[in-house]
Amino acid sequence: ELALMVLPFAKSDSKIRFLGNTQGEIDLSIDAIRVVTCRVVQLFGIDVSIRIVRRGCGDTAGGCVELSISALRQLRSVKLIERGKVKRIRGIAFSCRTAPDLPQRAATSAKGVLLNILPDVFVVTDVDKNSKGSGYGVILVAETTSKIAVIAQETIAEGRESAEEVGQRAAMLLLDQIAEGGCVDAHHQGLALLFMGVGPAEASTVRFGPLSATGVTMLTLLETFFGVKCAIKSTETEEGLPSATIVTCIGANLIN
């Protein structure tokens, strides 16, 4: 995540190989970064791609991924206000050196929850037997009719948690993210706000859900270090759902 924030402002294009844990509860998994984070970054004009060489889970993880990202002179402004309706949900149930039925059971459980709401749900399994660590989990991604908003949620199996519980937890957390009403999910608020703040001296507007702790921190950092102040407006949503937050700012016009 840090590399995606910094490398667009390097002197030349970058290609880096990262070794370590590819799935975990603390940070975004490599699947979320590849499928969702890269899309958010590309909205600002940055060309980026990620290739998963091998997965790694747990304390003895031996995962490997390759990141390729282009350097550019200046980011572009964005306007993401209309989220549209969720039209399909896709997912990956991944595992590293576990019984192959565990990710399949988790995927089936997640689909069992989501198919009650949306007919277009598809979750594939990805089993890596060459990883040094072990573990499994589910990542789910919701795409909307606006073709811009992509919302993600992921879970990693914990302790005595069954595969069915892992899948159900992933599905319920995704529904919570969708209910928040943002074009950018809570995991990517900080990244989107950073690129808005250092972008061109033009208005950028993005619709978020309720601001997360990371989002609030980024707003403070932008004002402290770049002198960028953001206009924040809450919008009414359907009854019983959190109000969405529309953030607008004029970028600091950072040029590489």
Write the layout of secondary structure elements.
Blueprint: H1 2-6, E1 14-20, H2 30-42, E2 48-54, E3 63-69, E4 79-80, E5 86-96, H3 101-114, E6 121-128, E7 135-144, E8 150-156, H4 163-179, H5 189-197, E9 203-208, H6 213-226, E10 230-235, E11 244-250
Parallel strand pairs: 4-9, 5-6
Antiparallel strand pairs: 1-3, 2-3, 5-7, 7-8, 9-11, 10-11
Helix pairs in contact: 3-4, 5-6
Question: How would you concisely characterize the structure shown here?
Answer:
By secondary structure, the chain is an alpha+beta fold. It has helices at residues 2-6, 30-42, 101-114, 163-179, 189-197, 213-226, and strands at residues 14-20, 48-54, 63-69, 79-80, 86-96, 121-128, 135-144, 150-156, 203-208, 230-235, 244-250.
Characterization of the model:
- The protein is of the alpha+beta class and 256 residues long.
- Helix content is 28%, strand content 30%.
- The strands form 3 sheets. A 4-stranded mixed β-sheet has the order 4-9-11-10, with helices on one face. It has a 4-stranded mixed β-sheet with strand order 6-5-7-8, with helices on both faces. Strands 1-3-2 form a 3-stranded antiparallel β-sheet, covered by helices on one side.
- A hairpin with an 8-residue loop joins strand 2 and strand 3.
- Helix 3 runs parallel beside helix 4 (163-179).
